[in-house]
Amino acid sequence: MGAMVSSRTTCNTPILLFRISDARTRKVVGIEVVILVAFFMYTAILYRLSTIWDRQSLPSETKSTSNNSPKDEHADFTKEIAVDVWFGLTLMPTFDAIAIVGTCNLAIINRWHYFVSIRTMVLAYLASIIVILSSKPGTTNFIYEHPGSVFMLTLAVYAGMGACLDYFRAPPPRTSMNPRAWTMSEYVGAIGRSDGTWSEAIIVTAVTCGLAPALTISLPVECWGIIPLVSTAFEAIIFRKTRFRRTCQYTVLSAPFFQGGVCVHWGLKQIIGSPRLFSPPWMFLLLLVASRLILDLHLQTLFRNCPEFQWARARAVLPTTQLVPVVLILLFLEMMHLSVVKWVKPVSVLGIYLAGIVAGTLPGAYTLAFGREKK
């Protein structure tokens, strides 16, 4: 018997049976452990760098002020609400992205992540910015007196960012491949199809993943939320200009650093100061449903001619008709004083990033350990 038993089933069933007695299986486990250790270490270092730079960028009068005025307290309250708004609008899209990984269709995974997930993150970021600006003296009156103008301006910024994403990477074609779930063997084979060297992977990793710490140092604190967006677009530009393809070596090397940068600016920075929900649970749950309605609207308009996205929405993503009852159950539990939603932020951040980094690197680690299947 070999070290692996495979069958022609979808990714949702266990098809790769590892034998712990096999040295190659232990190598896969070892690679994953090293990746996770590197992820935690880099995340801690980058977060520490961001806190040092954050303190250095504060005005001296702010550092010396010990008592907050009512205006400052209101601004802090608004920032906490903005964080909850961001989490509420991004939690379901993140779970959707993980569900898409379950199809094992590499083409759909890459396209959904870039064209769908990133757009929802942009909208969530813009919504949180509007909440923060609503407490600033120079913009409060304009936001409350001209909501229509604010809405149109937000849509214009969103459309501009979407156009930039499409420019850096060609949008999905009108007629695409026959969408279906791949087998795990096909998924692993697709990941390991591109040959590459470790030296190339190291160079590209240094270029693509070095952008996050550079932007953390150079950009104002208020702009740190766009760093993951810029990093993702920058990676697409590098791939497009150099014709570099995502190899196993690059996947394994870049994952802890790229995901660490995203985790700091789209996770840790939001929950360290306020791990619990600051907004009412009903508001957070309402945002979950709103994010799903935003996804449905995108698929019915912008991506209506993308059959792979329509298939993924129907076969992989939790239907809205099932999400609403779950939200109602959670709301009922909150009304019964069972705080099941209060600590959703740290639990979701830890679970999502761990699941994402393992799911993203396991095929590459497997290919490096077991080698490519001979045709």
Automatic annotation (TrEMBL):
Bilayer-crossing regions: 28-49, 85-109, 116-135, 147-168, 250-268, 280-303, 323-344, 350-371
Top-rank lineage group of the source organism: Eukaryota
Keyword field: Membrane, Transmembrane, Transmembrane helix
Name of the molecule in the record: Uncharacterized protein
Annotated organism of origin: Aspergillus calidoustus
